């Protein structure tokens, strides 16, 4: 499983405000290109974000579902992007000396992506999530 952490200059509550707004998902998730819909209950367990991944004209419509939530500290997701497959993503937040530490753990769990040996799939996931955390920090730190 790929694991990346970044400290942001914000409180856990400020981070959670961004994570709780499903319409912001494509601003910080690398690969997400647009939102089509957000369930009214987001981010409750079982709720979904209906998004597209890729670049036009090769967009794939799929969804991300909440598997577990602890408001302010944990969000466990099942991200789908078929035909590539599915990934489990866990986002943790915890107080840090200079703000909040955000950790993203991700790995392929179904489909062709899960067939790639771990030592080959982890480096691109780690690189992707460095950028995802950078974008999330930009959104969190620049909100009023």
Automatic annotation (TrEMBL):
Domain of life according to the entry: Bacteria
Pfam families given in the database record: Polyketide_cyc2 (PF10604)
InterPro entries (alphabetical): Polyketide_cyclase/dehydratase (IPR019587), START-like_dom_sf (IPR023393)
Protein name as catalogued: Polyketide cyclase / dehydrase and lipid transport
């Amino acid at each position: 499983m790929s694991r990346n952490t970044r400290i942001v200059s914000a409180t856990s509550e400020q981070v959670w405000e961004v994570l709780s707004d499903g319409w912001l998902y494509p601003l910080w998730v690398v690969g997400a290109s647009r939102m089509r819909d957000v369930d009214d209950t987001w981010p409750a367990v079982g709720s979904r974000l209906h998004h597209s991944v890729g670049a036009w004209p090769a967009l794939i419509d799929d969804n991300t579902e909440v598997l577990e939530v602890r408001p302010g500290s944990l969000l466990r997701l099942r991200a789908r992007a078929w035909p590539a497959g599915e990934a489990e993503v866990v986002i943790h937040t915890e107080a840090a000396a200079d703000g909040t530490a955000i950790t993203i753990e991700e790995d392929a769990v179904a489909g062709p992506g899960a067939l790639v040996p771990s030592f080959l799939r982890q480096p691109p996931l780690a690189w992707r999530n460095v950028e995802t955390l950078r974008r999330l920090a930009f959104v969190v730190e620049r909100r009023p």
